[in-house]
Specification:
heterodimer, A: mainly beta, 7-stranded mixed beta sheet, 3-stranded antiparallel beta sheet, globular, B: mainly beta, 11 strands, 56% strand
Chain lengths: 108, 119
């Protein structure tokens, strides 16, 4: 199975700053079948990015995804208070679908 | 608006069978691979498997021997059975639907069900 490793585990930032989250795959993810989810306490994950770089419906343009192959990045520009959450990457290229362990973006 | 509502027993004893059902409202039911995910502090998010309206399934190999998924298209429902549970199966369980009918990530999630397995 494809193992996804996210880094860092935690990012401590202030509102207005930018965040760069990394997701590295143990094997190449073809067709950029990689997604990012946001999860807040007590809630189900919410799709943020699909196809490595396409924003899901209702996601503001301060969220951007990039990358291909084995290295992917989620960038959050100008952090708003509602952006502080845990972010997970997921590959839906091969079965079993797998998730990264998550990166927590917390308020500094 | 697509909505998924799930339910099932939240407290089980070791060796019992976990049973959860998810009802879908809004949107089409056919054409999608309906999915179960679980989340535990120790293992994070784990994909359990998926089933389509024809009953075709894909299971996570790590759980395949204990998982049975079923679907009832007349009720827009799909279900998860996980047999012989242990404490390691304690987790929050979610049902979900992909964003699109073609291969895509989960765009819709149920509210989740906390399942606790006691010995």
């Amino acid at each position: 199975e494809i193992v996804l490793t996210q880094s860092p585990d935690t990012l401590s930032l202030s509102p207005g700053e930018s965040a760069t989250l990394s997701c590295r795959a143990s094997q190449s993810v073809t067709n950029n079948f990689l997604a990012w989810y946001q999860q807040k306490p007590g809630q189900a994950p919410r799709l943020v990015i699909y196809g490595a770089s396409s924003r899901a419906a209702g996601i503001p343009d301060r969220f951007s995804g990039s990358g291909s192959g084995t290295d992917f990045t989620l960038t959050l520009s100008r952090l708003e208070p509602e952006d502080f959450a845990v972010y997970y990457c997921q590959q839906y290229d091969r079965s079993p679908r797998t998730f990264g362990q998550g990166t927590k973006v917390e308020i500094k | 608006q697509v909505q998924l509502q799930q339910w099932g027993a939240g407290l089980l004893k070791s060796s019992e069978t976990l049973s959860l059902t998810c009802t879908v409202s809004g949107g089409f039911f056919s054409g999608y691979y309906w999915t179960w995910i679980r989340q535990s502090p120790g293992k994070g998010l784990e994909w359990i498997g998926e089933i389509n309206s024809s009953g075709n399934t894909n299971y996570n190999p790590s759980l395949k021997s204990r998982v049975i998924m079923s679907i009832d298209t007349s009720k827009n429902q799909f279900s998860l059975n996980l047999t012989s549970v242990t404490a390691a199966d304690t987790a929050f369980y979610y049902c979900g639907r992909p964003r699109l009918a073609v291969r895509s990530p989960l765009g819709y999630w149920g509210q989740g069900t906390q399942v606790t397995v006691s010995s």
